[in-house]
């Protein structure tokens, strides 16, 4: 979802009371909010609460947002602030993700799943699964960085820097190191 | 998608993006809740903005198990809250300024309506963890506090 269409949908939701536009906005920007929350290593229950608070806040603040095409950045920074508060409130944080995360795709059937019938698709899925499992074995800081870098729509390095508190100039080298590590872990799983 | 290993960094990142979408999607019930937030928003309500939160940056009070203190500022109404989190749930002690004995609706996981006493105080026990907001009716105006996560 690009900035222009975000801006158009947002204006429609604010000015013309267009619930369908809001729904598209939620669908388009939810993965972004989710990656911020996951990048903070929150356990499942906390992650879900922060996700909801973030969207509830946007719904409350619709008429106060001055730059509609930057609503993605607004959501990201709101989610970030909420994550920090939840962590400060000394609630439990699980750095390597919950075991539930492994299984969610299995019991929560997505449309993607229905498509995956052919053998080709099954192989694709095996590799995606191996990638996901290898990702889970990465260290906490690599997981956080890669969650942000694979967000959709993508974050700028400035936003990544603000979220994780690492210098913009360090992001490229750390990314490279994390991906190299991921490649090694994938190799061990027989994906060369 | 048919690229084999080894792949370039960009290809590997794309592969990972796909894996994240497949194996850690945004739960659909959460998206539904976010969609509904739009229809449930109170259009005619004044927003009481969160102007102080002891969990925020520089105002953070250090120390174990200090209650969280928050202030919401609306037009003609200030809401002060003290939130204590216990094993069984949270406890919220509130104060309306200026004091008035009005109904205070709790929005969120366990909606309930409380009544502030003559001094504008109210207490809410066993607050479930999650998004939390209050709605107060003052004559013909309605004030809603910004959502927080308890």
Structural class of chain B comes to alpha+beta
- Number of DSSP E strands of chain A: 0
Gross morphology of chain A is: globular
Helix count, DSSP H or I runs of 4 or more residues of chain B: 2
Number of strands of chain B: 10
Q: How much strand content do the residues of chain A show? A: under 5%
Please provide the ordered H/E string of secondary-structure elements of chain B.
Answer: HHEEEEEEEEEE
Q: Extract low-pLDDT stretches of chain A.
A: 92-107
Describe the structure.
The complex is a heterodimer of chains A (192) and B (150). Chain A has 192 residues and is mostly helical. Chain A is built from 10 helices and no strands. In chain B, a hairpin with a 2-residue loop joins strand 3 (77-86) and strand 4. In chain B, strands 1, 2, 3, 4, 5, 6, 7, 8, 9 and 10 form a 10-stranded mixed beta sheet that branches. At the A-B interface, helix 2, helix 3, helix 4, helix 5 and helix 7 of A face helix 1, helix 2 and strand 10 of B.
In short:
The complex is a heterodimer of chains A (192) and B (150). Chain A is mostly helical and 192 residues long. Chain A has helices at residues 3-15, 19-39, 44-60, 71-88, 99-107, 111-115, 119-137, 140-149, 157-164, 168-188.
Write the layout of secondary structure elements.
The complex is a heterodimer of chains A (192) and B (150).
Chain A: H1 3-15, H2 19-39, H3 44-60, H4 71-88, H5 99-107, H6 111-115, H7 119-137, H8 140-149, H9 157-164, H10 168-188
Helix pairs in contact in A: 1-2, 2-3, 2-4, 2-8, 3-4, 7-10, 8-10
Chain B: H1 9-23, H2 28-40, E1 46-53, E2 68-74, E3 77-86, E4 89-97, E5 103-108, E6 112-115, E7 121-127, E8 131-138, E9 141-145, E10 148-149
